[in-house]
């Protein structure tokens, strides 16, 4: 399984970071997680392309995670693709219906399926096995843990965790324990007073003792520019003993 960071940015755009979006690919199947502004252009630059993504999994419904959802639908329609499935937490159907009410000429152009999931049981999305965990954010949402189709591991023990937008807390550390890669929201440096998102020290403290191979800091606001190395060091100093890296658009990680 390979993870490609399509968008490592936030609701405040910067030139080198699109909004939230991640592509999972195992060679046969592809899954797009979140679809913020700029993600469609990033996706078009991959071998998979928007033609190869028929399932989108949403962590939550904030605009910087869903802004390119209808542009993806339209691009697939114009490219001759016939299907798109949108999977996400409660309210996903209302979100999609509302978007189509505004852009009603897109309604019925392709076979569109919408599925709402919960954290009570694992599920499949785009062929990947997925477990969900509620996050702590200003909007209800999920973090997800993934196991590729070729693996015998259950989703809850899969190698990849994407946090979505969330504060750092012990429950997230337990959810990610044993993962090879945890992509976690780390939106601001330590000297920014913020809620609903972690800073490096709060994230490192929450993950102290967790067995995670690599921590990838993502969902980065402009405030983090030029301070990436400092943030990596602060996470480690607070107690996380795995590898720490800052996400960049286009980064690929094999799992």
UniProtKB/TrEMBL annotation:
InterPro entries: AtsA-like_MBL-fold (IPR044094), Metallo-B-lactamas (IPR001279), RibonucZ/Hydroxyglut_hydro (IPR036866). One of its GO terms (molecular function) is 3'-tRNA processing endoribonuclease activity. Keywords: Hydrolase. Residues 18-219 form the Metallo-beta-lactamase domain. It holds the Pfam family Anti-Pycsar_Apyc1. Gene3D superfamilies: Ribonuclease Z/Hydroxyacylglutathione hydrolase-like (3.60.15.10). This is Ribonuclease BN, tRNA processing enzyme. It comes from Halorubrum sodomense.
